[in-house]
Amino acid sequence: METKASLSRIVVIITALFAALSGIYLLVGGIWLAKLGGSLYYIIAGVVSLVTAWLLYRRQASALLLYAVFLLCTTVWAVWEVGTDFWALTPRLDVTFFLGLWIILPFVYRQMAAKNAFARGALALSLVFTVAVLGYAIFNDPQVINGTIKAADSAPAKSDSGIPDGDWPAYGRTQGGTRYSPLSQINDQNVSKLDVAWTFRTGDLKTANDPGEITDEVTPIKIGDMLYLCTPHQKLFALDAATGKEKWKFDPQLKPNPTFQHVTCRGVSYHETTPAAEGNAANGAAPAVCARRIILPVNDGRLFALDAETGARCPAFGNNGELNLQNNMPNAVPGHYEPTSPPIITKSVIIVAGAVTDNFSTREPSGVIRGFDVETGKLLWAFDPGASDPNKLPTDGEHFTANSPNSWAPASYDDKLDLVYLPIGVATPDIWGGNRTPDMERYASGLLALNATTGKLAWFYQTVHHDLWDMDVPAQPTLADITDKSGNKVPAIYVPTKTGNIFVLDRRDGKLIVDAPEKPVPQGAAKGDHVSPTQPFSKLTFRPEAKLTGKDMWGATIYDQLMCRVMFHKLRYEGTFTPPSEQGTLVFPGNLGMFEWGGISVDTDRQLAIANPIALPFVSKLIPRGPGNPIEPEPNEKGGSGSESGIQHQYGVPYAVTLNAFLSPLGLPCKQPSWGYISAVDLKTNDIVWKQRIGTVRDSSPLPLPFKMGMPMLGAPISTAGNVFFIAATADNYLRAFNMSNGDKLWEARLPAGGQATPMTYSVNGKQYVVIAAGGHGSFGTKLGDYIIAYALPDAKS
After folding, report:
1. CA atoms within 13 A on the CB side of 377
2. Whole-angstrom distance, CA of residue 496 vs CA of residue 515
3. Where are the beta strands (DSSP E) in 299-418?
4. Count of CB atoms situated within 10 Å of the CB of 346
5. How does pLDDT run across 486-539, given as a tens digit for each residue?
6. What are the residues whose beta carbons fall under 8 Å from the beta carbon of 794, sequence distance 6 or more?
């Protein structure tokens, strides 16, 4: 008995020591926070913890009464700060609650010098009250919007796109980027029965020479009975669509190195010859070589045309099926110019753009957009966004304009208007723009519409003026004919942006369909730079209207949440478009954006958009040039950092910059969840119909916890006529299916690696399949792999 009592006293002393250390931490941190203008709560919490520690050490039962009052007040304070958001309440209450639960247990309470039933009962009631509040919060999430949009009044309209229902012949299925399939064999009634139909391993995995940003972002395309896809190293595979068996492959022998900013391939493009040639084949003549061809972009600046039947090079295209996109390119260093997205292909023209290394220097390749003859590879036109005459073709010895704004995300095409719509970025370096010329600013950070046959400008709409935040247009825009409130059909284009704004324009002339008024934004640029006085803000947006405050800061516990609040108050932040600074600026929406390269999915029959915005702040900090921060790169420094985060050199301008997600000392986001949503927008009214969190921390936390908090995503949803949409994308390894009408989850499948890609769906031999690339994303931190997985319904039993 003596030994048991001694152990109990030791437990009480350890408990008192924990409370004392906690109190010291909270008191010191709370004073620091208060001096920065933050909440006084942590000072109070620190004092109470210290007094509780002293009373426990003295074995006074009044410790329980004091703590009961403190826990009750803390719970009320937490609800006052963040309402009934369970995950926002958690760091405010977790340690506080469990310490209260601990000291009420018999082996602690019985060590009190004088028992006090009232004090113990009061603490028990406070604990019950806290549990009740958290229980209510679990089922009453203020971030969720529950709504329903009715099903289509009739069967899907017959598409005039000419695409067979069972095919997916372009990155977004159509070159208008709808990511919508008219297939309905898999629907909201049977999707739960989906199972793996086949799995294909590409064998393409990360090598020692790859940068951190190696990503498997491919969306395969399907034509007839063949599936075509590229791997991160741009190996091209042709598979049997029914079985997943390899038909042929082509390896361009990419030789990356760690200075490449990316190693990725989002997809390939497809082209067929004219009907006349098809007629000859139908009359018994052998099909022409490369009558059907696959166009493959390669990260070192090459473009291949390959026979879709055999994988052989198209001999009449360029140099035996190969184009060198580095021709007439300034600063032609491998990895500085990377075509990572599939080109647009019209009846006669291949339209190619590419990524330019962000934030490395002022001597980068050009962001020029070019049109090549689809049969021969001959250069037909160019549009150089940074040139005084964008359409001027360089003569011998001349180059396109260095550092001109680039277009790295997938483009869209309207064949009736013969207009190609290109998302445009900003002249690099991105985070300081004091040296940019008017020509460099003219077509930066916006949507560019060009005549696809001639390359001539049709119109341009700028989504960010004098962009200092890397807020380029990051996603394929989506074309949809929408019925407005007056009953008129409007040829619209939807432009998702990193800021969370979705700009809605008339795709004929670029005029706004949904208002986007110019609003004042924070001023005060870094030395030598300036800030636009206003920016456009679309009325169709997922951008939070309210500014972040200390109340929005988060952590796994009260301790790291306190540090996040301190860090928040030390940064410069005055809302969206707060200028970069030497102090350090909180960028929200962050550099990763609310929308990224995935874009949105639009059911044009129901006029319903499915979106998956994310909400993850970043921090940018300008580093003035000085000793150890040279204005020029070292002679042997051939590329950037191999990443879009961390130190970015910005050689040639007065500042380097660090870019990082805004994380706690434990590596968790400092902004409270959700960090990712799925949502539906009624395009007839532009109202958000429903919104749900998506994704768990299963693959992000030390323990495989299935907590649905709402995770960051890279990739897009696809929707179908079966009232089902599919999405992977999240930082956990799942492919999921949801009801389009209300957002209810219908099915999920565990993936063997990260699914940071957009799925697709097709049918062959009367059977519908859903396919996802599960290869992971290096800088996103998901597991890498080499899987292509197809799912289908089980065959009917005879």
Report:
1. 22
2. 15
3. 302-307, 322-324, 337-338, 344-345, 349-352, 355-356, 369-373, 379-383, 412-414
4. 17
5. 788 899 999 999 999 999 999 999 999 999 999 999 999 999 999 999 999 999
6. 193, 195
Q: Can you tell me the distance from the alpha carbon of 155 to that of 159, in angstroms, rounded to the nearest whole number? A: 12
Can you read off the two tokens belonging to residue 429? 């370096």
Burial letters for 6-28: b for 16+ Cβ neighbours within 10 Å, e otherwise? eebeeebeebbebbbebbebbbe
Task: Average the pLDDT over each of 194-208, 279-293, 686-700, 736-750 and give the range with the smallest value.
Answer: 279-293
CB count within 10 Å of CB 760 equals 26
Q: Give percent helix, percent strand, percent coil of the chain, each to the nearest 5.
A: 20, 25, 55
Band the pLDDT of 630: cuts 50, 70, 90: confident
Structure tokens at 793: 């319904």
Q: Which is more confidently placed, 170 or 2?
A: 170
For residue 782, give both structure tokens. 């998901």
Instruction: Specify the residue for token string 């109190």.
Output: 23
Backbone angles phi, psi at 791, to 5 degrees: -120, 150
Cβ 356 vs Cβ 333: under 8 Å: no
User: Given strand 687-693, what is the order of strands in its sheet?
Assistant: 601-603, 608-611, 677-682, 687-693
Assigned token pair, 182: 């008219």
**Got the DSSP string for 29-93?**
HHHHHHHTT--SHHHHHHHHHHHHHHHHHTT-THHHHHHHHHHHHHHHHHHHHHTT-HHHHHHHH
The answer to whether the Cα torsion of 108, 110, 111, 115 is positive or negative is: positive
pLDDT digits (tens, 9 = 90+) for 732-746: 999 999 999 999 999
Beta-ladder partners of 490: 482
CB 492 within 8 A of CB 482: yes
- CA distances 752 to 787, 789, 794, Å, are 8, 10, 21
Neighbours of 565 (CB within 10 A): 27
C-beta of residue 670 within 8 angstroms of C-beta of residue 664: yes
User: Residue 589: is the preceding peptide bond cis (ω within 30°)?
Assistant: yes
Reduced 3-state DSSP string for 611-670: ECCECCCEEEEEEECECCECCCCCCCCCCCCCCCCEEECCECCCEEEEEEECECCCCCEC
State the catalytic residues.
470
Summarize pLDDT for 313-353 with one digit per residue, the tens.
999 999 999 999 999 999 988 889 999 999 999 999 999 99
Element (H, E) at 282: helix 275-282
Q: Give the helix/strand (H/E) hosting 450.
A: strand 446-451
Query: Exposure string (b/e) for 484-522, b if CB count within 10 Å is 16 or more?
Result: eeeeeeebbbbbbbbbbbbbbbebbebeebbebeeeebe
Of 661, 659, 656, whose CA–CA distance to 360 is shortest? Answer: 656
Give the distance, in angstroms, between the CA of residue 539 and the centroid of all CA atoms in the same chain. Answer: 21
- Cis preceding linkage at 429, omega within 30: yes
Q: CA distances (Å), 645 to each of 222, 381, 648, in order?
A: 35, 35, 7
Q: For residue 766, count other CB atoms closer than 10 A to its CB.
A: 7
Mean pLDDT of 301-310: 97
Q: What is the distance between the alpha carbons of residues 527 and 581, in angstroms, rounded to a whole number?
A: 9
How far apart CA 786 and CA 202 sit, in angstroms, is: 5
Give 584's strand partners: none
Q: Which of the residue ranges 95-99, 286-290, 446-450, 773-777 would you say has the lowest mean pLDDT?
A: 286-290
d(CA 559, CA 14): 19
* Distance in angstroms (rounded) separating the CA atoms of residues 372 and 352: 8
Separation CA 322–CA 79 (nearest Å): 63
Cα(148)–Cα(162) distance, integer angstroms: 32
